[in-house]
């Protein structure tokens, strides 16, 4: 699903501190490890699914970030439990790469077999409740936020989570 960010979502039950990463694929292992640590105590299947989708979204963020600048681009990760049954993950790139995330449609079988890119959003579409994107100040090309919502079994939410989780 490609729709605007859930503006009417209530204040998160749990909000993890944002994490900032250099816009480089060499940071992907760190992104995965941080996310797995932040989601410790949640159901392993949920963690695996979120980490898999996060890998794809981070890689897309790196591709579209302004990594051509001398100082390089950045990708910001956010994570929140917006309701007892909903986990919201997002990445925001720092812009400059252009493009808008979209699931490819209308490819022939041969084109799909030869395609190297844009399959990841099909994964996102099939493993999440819904996903979407929001341009950050489109008049200034400040980047894009891509978000995905995951179903959480309320009984599987770890006890003792605080409303705001500081990351290390």
UniProtKB/TrEMBL annotation:
It comes from the Bacteria. It comes from Streptomonospora nanhaiensis. The lineage of its organism: Bacteria, Bacillati, Actinomycetota, Actinomycetes, Streptosporangiales. Residues 24-130 form the Histidine kinase/HSP90-like ATPase domain. Keywords: ATP-binding, Kinase, Nucleotide-binding, Serine/threonine-protein kinase, Transferase. CDD domains: HATPase_RsbW-like (cd16936). This is ATP-binding protein. GO terms for molecular function: ATP binding.
């Amino acid at each position: 699903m490609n729709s605007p960010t859930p503006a009417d979502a209530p204040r998160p039950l749990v909000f993890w501190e944002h994490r900032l990463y250099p816009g480089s694929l060499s940071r992907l292992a760190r992104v995965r490890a941080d996310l797995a640590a932040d989601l410790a105590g949640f159901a392993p299947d949920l963690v695996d699914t979120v980490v898999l989708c996060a890998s794809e979204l981070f890689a897309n963020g790196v591709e579209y970030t302004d990594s051509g600048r001398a100082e390089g681009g950045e990708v910001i990760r956010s994570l929140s439990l917006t309701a007892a049954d909903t986990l919201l993950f997002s990445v925001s790139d720092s812009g400059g790469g252009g493009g808008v995330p979209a699931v490819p449609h209308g490819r022939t079988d041969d084109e799909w077999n030869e395609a190297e890119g844009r399959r990841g959003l099909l994964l996102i579409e099939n493993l999440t409740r819904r996903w979407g994107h929001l341009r950050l100040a489109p008049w200034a090309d400040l980047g894009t936020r891509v978000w995905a919502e995951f179903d959480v079994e309320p009984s599987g939410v770890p006890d003792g989570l605080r409303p705001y989780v500081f990351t290390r």
